[in-house]
Amino acid sequence: MKSDTADLIEVFSSIQGEGDLIGRRQVFIRFRGCNLDCDYCDTNAVDFDHCRFELTPGRQDFQQMANPVSMPKVIELLERWQRGWPGVHHSISLTGGEPLLQVDAIHTWLPELKGILPVHLETNGVLHIALFKIVNDLDYISMDIKLPSSSGESGLWDHHHAFLETAAATEVSVKTVVNCATEEWEIERAARMIATVNDNIPLIIQPETSPDDTIKLSQLRLIEFQDLASGILADVRIIPQTHRFIGLL
């Protein structure tokens, strides 16, 4: 089943502040809704009658659009940006919420989006059946592994493993959020799961950012987590949410 419309929160231009594509300028298409309820989530992904479209890339001059939003409206905006600001954007990031909840719409939109820029999926890494429908049309995937200690979610390990096996067909990286409650066994289990698929897949350890934009986890603990994971994987990085520190969306 395909759909020409999707429920969105916002469409805007900014700098990727997390993960493997950090520092890249992207077009963000933020989809409404999520199947998880992580303790550290900083996105309001509940029902919206309207979403907001940024008219000028990076200028935060937003205009309200009624949901659901049709594909031609999104494509028209992105093509205008490409004409007016050629070479500025590296890729399009499908984010949320959880974009794969609206996989039918993404399936319909992807050929048009890929005609404009490469496509990057940011996902909680659980909906592997939905991913299978579109994985061959994606260029990059940044998936989460939700640790029980930091996310408050449990029972997701098998779902994450199945998701990663499918995502490995693209340029994939894994992000996991850690905080003061995170235990070493969680880091080890996440790293060993990744290694069963490909031990060269990057693991980004992201310290949780508090509402006051500070990091409570000690530097030593972060180093210890990196030490542990680096004994299993070839590429382990510590990257905070940099966009939070420079006041970007």
Features:
single chain, 249 residues, alpha/beta, TIM Barrel, ten-stranded mixed sheet, two-stranded antiparallel ribbon, 8 helices, 12 strands, globular
What's the CATH superfamily, by name? Aldolase class I
CATH architecture: Alpha-Beta Barrel
Instruction: Name the strands of the widest sheet in spatial order.
Output: 5-4-2-3-7-8-9-10-11-12
Total domains, how many? Answer: 1
Portion of residues within helices = 25-40%
Distance between the termini: 33 Å
The main β sheet shows up as: 10 strands, mixed
Order of helices and strands: EEEEEEHEHEHEHHEHEHEH
Main structural class: alpha/beta
Summed over residues and divided by their number, the pLDDT gives a mean of 94
CATH class: Alpha Beta
Low-confidence stretches: none
Spatial shape: globular
User: Can you count the beta strands?
Assistant: 12
Measured on Cα atoms, how large is the radius of gyration?
18 Å
* SS element count, helices: 8
* CATH fold category name: TIM Barrel
Describe what you observe in this structure:
This protein is α/β, with parallel strands linked by helices and 249 residues long. The chain has a single domain (5-245), classed as Alpha-Beta Barrel (TIM Barrel), CATH 3.20.20.70. Helix content is 31%, strand content 24%. The chain is built from 8 helices and 12 strands. A hairpin with a 7-residue loop joins strand 4 and strand 5 (62-66). The chain is globular, with a radius of gyration of 18 Å. The relative contact order is 0.15. The model has no long low-confidence stretch (mean pLDDT 94).
